[in-house]
C-alpha cells in the first residue's frame, strides 16, 4: 500500500515537497517512481529511484528542477519540486517499480501551479 | 526516446463484445510492454506486463500479444466494469513512456 501526502496550490516559481509512505512490503528492496497526469491528459513518467537510493533518473521535462529521494528507515519516498511551472500542474502518483513496470500505485496527489 | 502510438484513441462497444487495442513502438522493444487500466478519478492499475503476463487478480478475459514493435490488448468479452481508459507502457528503457491512451466507452 502506498499512501500519499496532500497536495496543494503553489505559485509559479515556487516549491513543494510530495511524500509517499509505503507499507506491507520490504520498501528498501524495490525501486519506486513518480508518474504524473495533467488534467484530462495521459500518463507521464517523472522520476525513478533505486531501492538503495543510490541511483536516480529523471524526465527531461523536470531535470534540474525536481529531486527524488527516499528514507528507507521511514518507508517514505519524496519528490522535491522547485521552480514550478504552470505546466507542472498534475496529479502525481507514486508507484513501486519493477523492471516490468509500475505496481501498485498510490492514490495520487494533486499539485496546482497557478498565480 | 521510444514513442508509443495507441489505436484507436477511443471506441464504443457493448457488453459482451470482443475489444482489441493496438500499441505500436517507434523501435524494437522485444516483449517489454505492459498494459494499464485507469477509471475516472482513480490511479492506474497494471493488467499485463512483458506483453502477455497477466497481473495477479486480473480476469482472464484480458490478454496481450505481440513482440518487437506491434502489440495488442484484447478483452474477450467486455464487462460493465471494463469501461475505462487503457494505456500501454514500454519497460524496455528509460525514459519510460506511455501510449496516449484508449478510452473504451459504452455503446
List keywords for this structure.
heterodimer, A: 115 residues, 0% helix, 53% strand, globular, B: 107 residues, mainly beta, seven-stranded mixed β-sheet
Characterize the structure shown.
The complex is a heterodimer of chains A (115) and B (107). By secondary structure, chain A is mostly beta strands. Chain A contains no helices and eleven strands. In chain A, the strands form two sheets. In chain A, strands 2, 4, 5, 6, 9, 10 and 11 form a seven-stranded mixed β-sheet that branches. In chain A, strands 1-3-8-7 form a four-stranded antiparallel β-sheet, with no helix packed on it. The radius of gyration of chain A is 13 Å and the shape is globular. With 107 residues, chain B is mostly beta strands. Chain B has no helices and eleven strands. In chain B, the strands form two sheets. In chain B, strands 2, 4, 5, 6, 9, 10 and 11 form a seven-stranded mixed β-sheet that branches. Chain B starts with a strand and ends with a strand. The mean pLDDT of chain B is 97. The interface between A and B is medium-sized, with 22 and 23 residues.
Helix/strand layout:
The complex is a heterodimer of chains A (115) and B (107).
Chain A: E1 2-4, E2 8-10, E3 16-22, E4 31-37, E5 43-49, E6 56-58, E7 66-71, E8 76-81, E9 90-98, E10 101-105, E11 109-113
Parallel strand pairs in A: 2-11
Antiparallel strand pairs in A: 1-3, 3-8, 4-5, 4-9, 5-6, 7-8, 9-10, 9-11
Chain B: E1 4-7, E2 10-13, E3 19-25, E4 33-38, E5 45-49, E6 53-54, E7 62-67, E8 70-75, E9 85-90, E10 97-98, E11 102-106
Parallel strand pairs in B: 2-11
Antiparallel strand pairs in B: 1-3, 3-8, 4-5, 4-9, 5-6, 7-8, 9-10, 9-11
Distance between the termini of chain B: 36 Å
What would the principal axes of the Cα set say about the shape of chain A? globular
Quick one: how many beta strands of chain A?
11
Rounded mean pLDDT score of chain B: 97
Oligomeric state as shown? heterodimer
Short structural summary:
Chain A has 115 residues and is an all-beta fold. Chain A contains no helices and 11 strands.
Amino acid at each position: 500500500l502506498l499512501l500519499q501526502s496532500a497536495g496543494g496550490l503553489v505559485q509559479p516559481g515556487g516549491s513543494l515537497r510530495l511524500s509517499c509512505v509505503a507499507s506491507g512490503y520490504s520498501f528498501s528492496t524495490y525501486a519506486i517512481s513518480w508518474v504524473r497526469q495533467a488534467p484530462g491528459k495521459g500518463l507521464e513518467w517523472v522520476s525513478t529511484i533505486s531501492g538503495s537510493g543510490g541511483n536516480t533518473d529523471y524526465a527531461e521535462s523536470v531535470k534540474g528542477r525536481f529531486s527524488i529521494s527516499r528514507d528507507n528507515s521511514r518507508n517514505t519516498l519524496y519528490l522535491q519540486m522547485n521552480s514550478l511551472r504552470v505546466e507542472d500542474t498534475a496529479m502525481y502518483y507514486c508507484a513501486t517499480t519493477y523492471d516490468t513496470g509500475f505496481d501498485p500505485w498510490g492514490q495520487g496527489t494533486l499539485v496546482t501551479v497557478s498565480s | 526516446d521510444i514513442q508509443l502510438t495507441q489505436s484507436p484513441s477511443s471506441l464504443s462497444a457493448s457488453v459482451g463484445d470482443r475489444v482489441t487495442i493496438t500499441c505500436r513502438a517507434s523501435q524494437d522493444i522485444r516483449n517489454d510492454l505492459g498494459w494499464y487500466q485507469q477509471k475516472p478519478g482513480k490511479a492506474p492499475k497494471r493488467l499485463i506486463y512483458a506483453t502477455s503476463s497477466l497481473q495477479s487478480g486480473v480476469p482472464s478475459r484480458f490478454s496481450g500479444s505481440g513482440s518487437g514493435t506491434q502489440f495488442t490488448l484484447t478483452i474477450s468479452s467486455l464487462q460493465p466494469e471494463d469501461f475505462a481508459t487503457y494505456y500501454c507502457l514500454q519497460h524496455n528503457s528509460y525514459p519510460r513512456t506511455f501510449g496516449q491512451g484508449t478510452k473504451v466507452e459504452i455503446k
